[in-house]
Structures are given as C-alpha cells and as structure tokens.
Design the sequence.
C-alpha cells in the first residue's frame, strides 16, 4: 500500500495578495472611538503604557536642558521605541476583541511570540532613523558655520533669514517621517496578529498608504495633532492620548487589512 504524501504547510500570502478594505473619511474617527473604548475597558494597562510615554517625554526635556546636542539622537530613539512599546496595547485590544480578559503580564511579553520578525522590522526602522539623523546633521552643517548648539538651531527657526535652512530641515523630516509612517502604520500589529514576515507586513502597510493615501494622511494628521496637544502640558496628556492611539492603531489594522 502506497502512503500518500503529506500535505504541504499553508503558505502565508504575499503582500500583493493580501486584501485591503476600502476606507472612508470617517474611519480614523471610528478607530479613535474604538481605542477610547479599549482604554476604558483596561484602564490600568493603558495608564501604565501612557506613563511610559510621559516619562520618555520628561527624559527628552531633561536631555535638552543639560545636553542639547544629544536631543536629536534621543528623539530618534524614542520614535523607534514608541511603536514597539505599543505592542502591549495591541495585545490588550486583541484579547478584548476575542472576548478575553486582558492580562498585564501578557501585554508586557507580547513581543515574545514574534521576536525574530519584530527584530527584523526594528532593524529596518533603526536604519531609517539613523539615515534621518545623518541627513539632518548635514542640513545643519551646510546651513551654519560649523555645527551650532541645538538650542541655537531651534532659535534659528524663528529668524526669517534662515528660510533656506527651515525649508530643507522640514523637507528632510517630512520625507523620512512619511516613509517611516508608511511602512509601519499597520505593520507591527499585523506581525503580532498573523504568521507573516516583516517584509510582507511593511509592504502591505506601504501599499495601504499608496492606495488609500487621503484617508491615511488624515489618520497621520490626527495622530500628529493629538500627540502635539498631549505634549503641551508637560507631556501629561500622553498618559491618556498615548494608549488611546495605541489601541486605535490596532483597530486601524483590523479595519484596513482583511483576514
């Protein structure tokens, strides 16, 4: 009797085969409402991660006061840490979506299930952050006679004669911030939720932004405005805004990327 060959293991679809749902203008507001509901259902977990965001902001301010030259590098590091810190919030929303009770310890170890792919994606973000920092330093060096003190550079933003520096600095920041946003807006929750690789997740996120640009720009603008407002009262607003946006990002992924 001839034994039948074993069935091949299921293969995860490539980035181009993953179905993206059409999104309306009201989708980002719907994600925010869902994020707020998740925060209310697991407030202690959310407040812990919100406190982490707030402490990161305080640390940035202290560095700016005592060693302003290092502020730019530390800011890049915090931008890299933020999405990975949200992993615990994604796991909490995932459990709530399944009708399960969120667990604080489980949220802290959310990264443990997909360590390899998250590490690959983190390395890609790190490279982009380093390139962004290097490009910014080049703009500073070309615009001024040597490398100025960082505080002096910020004050220079208010001087009309430095319009060339302001334009170049803002342009470089917009390019790198836009690229990082495009490849990461739904990729990290996707890696956590599916058995997919980091490249597929990043390409799916980029494809979402390129095919539904207007809605995703609207979502990015909402995130930027809310974070900016949350930073104004000594970063205290991040205590709530941070976790709400983290939960909302999970719902953005679940709404945009079909199973």
Sequence:
């Amino acid at each position: 009797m001839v034994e039948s060959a074993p069935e091949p293991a299921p293969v995860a679809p490539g980035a181009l085969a993953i179905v993206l749902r059409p999104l309306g203008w009201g989708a980002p507001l719907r994600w925010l409402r869902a994020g707020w509901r998740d925060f209310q259902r697991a407030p202690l977990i959310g407040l812990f991660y919100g406190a982490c965001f707030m402490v990161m902001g305080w640390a940035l301010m202290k560095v700016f006061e005592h060693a302003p030259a290092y502020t730019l590098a530390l800011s890049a590091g915090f931008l890299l840490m933020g999405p990975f810190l949200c992993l615990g919030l994604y796991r909490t929303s995932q459990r709530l979506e399944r009708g399960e009770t969120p667990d604080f310890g489980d949220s802290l170890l959310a990264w443990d299930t997909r360590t390899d792919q998250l590490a690959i994606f983190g390395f890609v973000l790190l490279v982009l952050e380093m390139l962004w920092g290097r490009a910014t330093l080049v703009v500073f060096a070309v615009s001024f006679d040597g490398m100025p003190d960082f505080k002096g550079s910020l004050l220079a933003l208010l001087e009309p004669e430095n319009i060339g520096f302001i334009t170049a600095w803002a342009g470089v920041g917009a390019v790198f911030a836009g690229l990082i946003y495009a490849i990461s807006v739904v990729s990290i929750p996707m890696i956590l939720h599916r058995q997919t690789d980091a490249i597929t997740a990043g390409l799916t996120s980029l494809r979402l932004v390129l095919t539904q640009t207007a809605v995703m720009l609207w979502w990015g603008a909402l995130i930027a405005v809310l974070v900016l407002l949350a930073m104004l009262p000594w970063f205290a607003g991040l205590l709530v805004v941070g976790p709400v946006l983290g939960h909302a990002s999970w719902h953005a992924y679940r709404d945009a990327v079909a199973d």
User: Anything to note?
Assistant: The two ends are 40 Å apart (CA to CA).
